[in-house]
Structures are given as C-alpha cells and as structure tokens.
Amino acid sequence: MVRRTGAKGQRRIEEILDAAEEILVEVGYGGLSMRGVADRLGLRLSHVQYYFGGPDALLEAIFDRSLTRSIEAFEHRPKREGIEAMVAFVLEDQLSTSYCRLFFELWALAARDMKANAVLARYYARYQSYVESMVASEYPQAKPAQLKRCAVILMSLFEGLSLFRGVEGRIAVSRRELDKDIVKAVRAILAQS
C-alpha cells in the first residue's frame, strides 16, 4: 500500500515511480528492486520503503499510475467524438516503446507470479470498465452483458496489436493502412454486439 502524503511526499512518490518504471523498462522485473530504485535516486532504502512497503506495492503503483495517466490523457485529448477517437488514442499510445515494454514485462511476470497476476487483473478490471463506458457512450441501448463482451473483445484486439505495433519492424504492412483496418474491425465488432 502506498502511503498518503502531502505535496512534497507526492512529488517523491512520483520520482520513485519514475525511477522504478525506468528500471523495469530498461532491465526487466528481474532487475527491479527497492534498493535499486533507492540507489538510482540517491536515497536510503528506508526512504523508498516509507512510501512503498515492498516491491508488490511498488509494482502495483507503477501500473495503476500508467492506467490513470492513459485515462486522463484520453479524457483531456482534443475532443473528437465517437469510438474512432478511442481507437485512435489507443493506437497512438501503443507507439510508445517504453509503454509496450512495461506491459511486456508485466505479462511475462504475471504468468509465473501470483501477486503480479493480481496486479494485472486489477489493471484490466479498471481498463475493461473504462472501455465499457466508452462503448456505452457510443451505443447507449447496449445491455450490460453486451458491453462487457464487447469491451473484452476490443481489449483483446488492442492488447494483441501492441505486440506488433509497439516495436518498430514487427509488422510488414503500412501502419496507416493497418490503423484504418483496425477502425473498420472495431466498427464491425460493435455492429455485431
């Protein structure tokens, strides 16, 4: 659990999370440690532990912050209505190599670590809820069960795409053409729901 703090403490938490995320992206989970984060910031280990009781709380905070930032960025984007805006936003987000590497690490870790799997499950529950709300705004007549199924299908499409779009050279087709096809696919999925 992350300790609640004032403005100065919140800045320190952000610094710790930035350093931890950099380590996770650079060398992977195997290289992430509370001590490594403290060393990178020139802090004592106890200082990092004050804010994050242990590595599980740190890992969870990294991914919670990532999703929160994505949602905030989407909500504060230049207003374009419709599901295409959501799709365009997700596709643009995937072009960040560090963002994709962060998730590659979590996916690999979640396959063998129950605590990481729990972090991932909480992340996807929030993500699914958000996608459901976006679909509901486009299709207000949809029933809750339809929204859930549609959100899971869309999330699967987006997450699968990140394996190819997030790392340059993994796809042998034009990104622009692929992005247009993805929007068409999303429209077709929504039409079937």
What does this structure look like?
The protein has 193 residues and is mainly alpha-helical. The protein has two domains: 1-53, Orthogonal Bundle (Arc Repressor Mutant, subunit A), CATH 1.10.10; 60-192, Tetracycline Repressor, domain 2 (Orthogonal Bundle), CATH 1.10.357. 76% of the residues lie in helices and 0% in strands. It has nine helices and no strands. The protein has helices at 7-27, 34-41, 45-51, 55-75, 83-93, 97-110, 114-138, 144-165, 175-192. The longest helix has 25 residues, at 114-138. The chain is globular, with a radius of gyration of 18 Å. It starts with 6 loop residues before the first helix and ends with a helix.
Please outline the helices and strands.
Blueprint: H1 7-27, H2 34-41, H3 45-51, H4 55-75, H5 83-93, H6 97-110, H7 114-138, H8 144-165, H9 175-192
Key features of this structure:
193 residues; mainly alpha; Arc Repressor Mutant, subunit A; Tetracycline Repressor, domain 2; 2 domains; 76% helix
What is the third-level CATH name, the topology of the largest domain? Tetracycline Repressor, domain 2
Structural class: mainly alpha
Percent range for helical residues? over 70%
Task: Let me know the number of strands.
Answer: 0
Main pleated-sheet profile: none
What's the CATH architecture of the largest domain? Orthogonal Bundle
The CATH superfamily of the largest domain turns out to be: Tetracycline Repressor, domain 2
Output the CATH class name of the largest domain: Mainly Alpha
User: Beta fraction of the residues?
Assistant: under 5%
Number of helices: 9
> pLDDT average, as an integer?
82
Low-confidence stretches: none
CA gyration radius, whole angstroms: 18 Å
Helix/strand order: HHHHHHHHH
What's the shape?
globular
N- to C-terminal separation?
Answer: 39 Å
Structural domain tally? 2
